[in-house]
Amino acid sequence: MTKKLKKVIAEPDDVVITDEMFSRAKRRDDLPPDIERLLPRRRGPSKKKPTKVSLTLRISRPAVEAFRATGDGWQTRMNDALERAAKRLVTN
């Protein structure tokens, strides 16, 4: 941090992050996987993907169970599989 922190009186439980604390901070990707999973992912403005569409879709139980069995992130993997299938439909 290049700016000096202003002393602000707020709540007694508030934590003031010092330059020394800031210098020891780690990127989310550098944390152990079990801790990284607890933190929400946020995308910066340059990494935003196109907006997704929320819809209700009925998919066979075996298909859903197969994706769920792959663990966390199964919805993203299912979306990726649908995108690949959509590209094949357009090129045929």
Features:
92 residues, mainly alpha
Please describe what this structure looks like.
The protein is mainly alpha-helical and 92 residues long. The protein has a domain of 59 residues. The chain contains four helices and no strands. The longest helix has 18 residues.
Per-chain topology:
Elements: H1 19-24, H2 33-36, H3 61-68, H4 74-91
Write a brief structural summary.
It is built from 4 helices and no strands. It has helices spanning about 20-25, 35, 60-70, 75-90.
The average pLDDT is 82
Q: Please trace the helix and strand order, writing H or E for each element.
A: HHHH
**What is the number of strand segments?**
0
Task: Determine the strand fraction and express it as a percent band.
Answer: under 5%
Radius of gyration: 21 Å
* Straight-line distance between termini: 54 Å
Largest sheet: none
How much helix, percentage-wise, in residues? Answer: 25-40%
Q: Note the overall shape.
A: elongated
Query: Stretches where pLDDT falls below 50 for ≥5 residues?
Result: none
Supply the number of helical segments. 4
- Helix and strand content put the structural class at mainly alpha
